[in-house]
Amino acid sequence: MAERLNITPKHLSTIETGATFVSAKLLEEITNQLLVSASALFYSVDEVSTDDSLYNRIDQIINEHYSRAFEEVKKEIRYINNQTIHDVKA
Q1: Is there a contact between 34 and 53 (Cβ–Cβ < 8 Å)?
Q2: Which residues constitute the domain of residue 50?
């Protein structure tokens, strides 16, 4: 699985054991590789029964955080790009 995710086995192990938390990008890749929703990684069928609306809300929260983080990265890239253009003109 680590190879499919393009990370080291040690990195995957630290995520699996809870020593570190997965990034939003890596979480997305894991769910794509496993063909499951993000909420499926946090809850098992043995836990107290919940309806799909809870899982949908969890997915929504994860997606909102991922979207915000992605927008922040794009802003930073635009800023760096603008600084580079400004430096070239100067």
Answers
A1: no
A2: 2-89
